[in-house]
């Protein structure tokens, strides 16, 4: 055998190292979408997944690659069950070797998933679960959220509804989303002059709201000035239509609520002039990403993008922005360093991951409902965009 010179040996060794490095860089980027594909929030989940895939597509200009690494999305169904969600996320990070996870839909399910991200030391982007405690008391450093939190909802709606002489009662679901939402709304109202006089909580599967409505009416009927029932509800069994049928206006009580998916906003047609605040409505934001989303979604699905489609797209765009900052690395520590304080584009415009709790600061929209007989839902016309600097969102961890 011929002897290989030291110089040539070094050249071969370097070539082998470069080959190994290139192979590692060429590995797929695995993103696990762990969300409630089945269950009461299935409509939200479908929108979120569609948006996530469109966000990855838009942010990579259709290549579904970052720095030569292919993006692969793995789907896991939480079934809206906390124990199933924990197992699904552990399986995604462990067996499937996912680099990043996105999800879930439900706040209660999200709270069960947070410790799994910490245990595996992998980034979990929460979208669209809302409860403040996700980026508050239950938060850990591997958790980021592109979705809005309860405080953002609450402050925006307090701006829309709160003023001197207004008395407000709330009706919310009796779990993390509803209770965190009311707590944040109550706190936000303190600076407006309005007062919260009554809180009513109902199980998520409630069908008959007669007793709840009566307690609310009794609490409001003798209050002076403007009287408002503010509803915080997610998923099916939305009580707005049923309570409206009880004619609260005979007691001088108005119904108000925040934004929702288009199907739920069909009930808003009975509430012309109703004011509130929303996270997204496809006609409101004016930017290239939203223009692309609206046009492409209409073309592909013969319908405009919905509330949670925009959220999913925001998560996809955040992932690509972070990967570009790390040069394509999926190392968790490098991702965290890149994402803390990161500004990134979304269909809503600019968002910023706040370093203290990784909550995405973002605009919200004060609206008034307009009714058009040719449109199936009440249209939330923009009254005022609430910019990031207009809202003082508390850090709760």
UniProtKB/TrEMBL annotation:
A single GO BP? amino acid transport
The signal peptide here is 1-26
The superkingdom of the source organism is Bacteria
**Matching InterPro entries, A to Z?**
BCAA_transport, Leu-bd, Peripla_BP_I
Q: Where is the Leucine-binding protein domain?
A: 29-370
Query: Which keywords appear in this protein's UniProt record, sorted alphabetically?
Result: Amino-acid transport, Signal, Transport
In the record, the note on similarity to other proteins reads: Belongs to the leucine-binding protein family.
Name of this chain's protein: Substrate-binding domain-containing protein
């Amino acid at each position: 055998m011929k002897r290989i010179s030291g110089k040539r040996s070094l050249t071969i060794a370097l070539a082998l190292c470069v080959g190994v490095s290139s192979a590692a860089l060429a590995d797929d980027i695995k993103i696990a979408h762990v969300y409630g594909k089945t269950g009461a929030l299935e409509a939200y989940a479908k929108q979120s997944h569609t948006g996530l895939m469109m966000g990855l597509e838009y942010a990579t200009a259709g290549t579904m690659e970052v720095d030569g690494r292919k993006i692969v999305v793995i789907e896991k169904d939480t079934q809206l069950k906390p124990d199933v969600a924990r197992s699904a996320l552990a399986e995604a990070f462990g067996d499937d070797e996912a680099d990043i996870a996105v999800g879930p839909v439900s706040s209660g399910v999200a709270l069960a998933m947070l410790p799994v991200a910490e245990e595996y030391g992998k980034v979990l982007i929460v979208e669209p679960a809302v409860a403040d405690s996700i980026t508050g008391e239950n938060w850990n450093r591997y958790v980021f959220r592109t979705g809005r939190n309860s405080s953002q909802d609450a402050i925006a709606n307090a701006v829309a509804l709160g003023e001197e002489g207004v008395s407000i009662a709330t009706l919310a679901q009796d779990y993390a989303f509803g209770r965190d939402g009311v707590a944040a709304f109550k706190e936000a109202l303190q600076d407006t002059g309005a007062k919260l006089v009554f809180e009513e909580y109902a199980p998520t599967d409630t069908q008959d709201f007669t007793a709840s409505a009566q307690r609310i009416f009794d609490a409001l009927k003798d209050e002076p000035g403007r009287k408002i029932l503010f509803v915080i509800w997610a998923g099916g069994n939305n009580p707005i239509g049923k309570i409206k049928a009880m004619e609260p206006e005979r007691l001088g009580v108005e119904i108000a609520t925040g934004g929702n998916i288009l199907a739920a906003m069909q009930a808003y047609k009975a509430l012309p002039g109703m004011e509130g605040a929303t996270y997204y409505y496809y006609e409101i934001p004016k930017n290239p990403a939203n223009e692309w989303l609206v046009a492409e979604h209409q073309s592909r699905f013969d319908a405009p993008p919905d509330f949670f489609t925009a959220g999913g797209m925001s998560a996809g765009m955040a992932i690509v922005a972070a990967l570009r900052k790390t040069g394509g690395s999926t190392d968790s520590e490098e991702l965290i360093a890149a994402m803390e304080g990161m500004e990134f584009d979304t269909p809503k415009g600019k968002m910023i991951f706040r370093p203290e709790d990784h909550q995405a600061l973002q605009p919200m929209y004060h609206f008034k409902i307009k009714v058009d007989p040719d449109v199936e839902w009440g249209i939330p016309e923009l009254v005022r965009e609430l910019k990031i600097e207009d809202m003082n969102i508390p850090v709760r961890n």
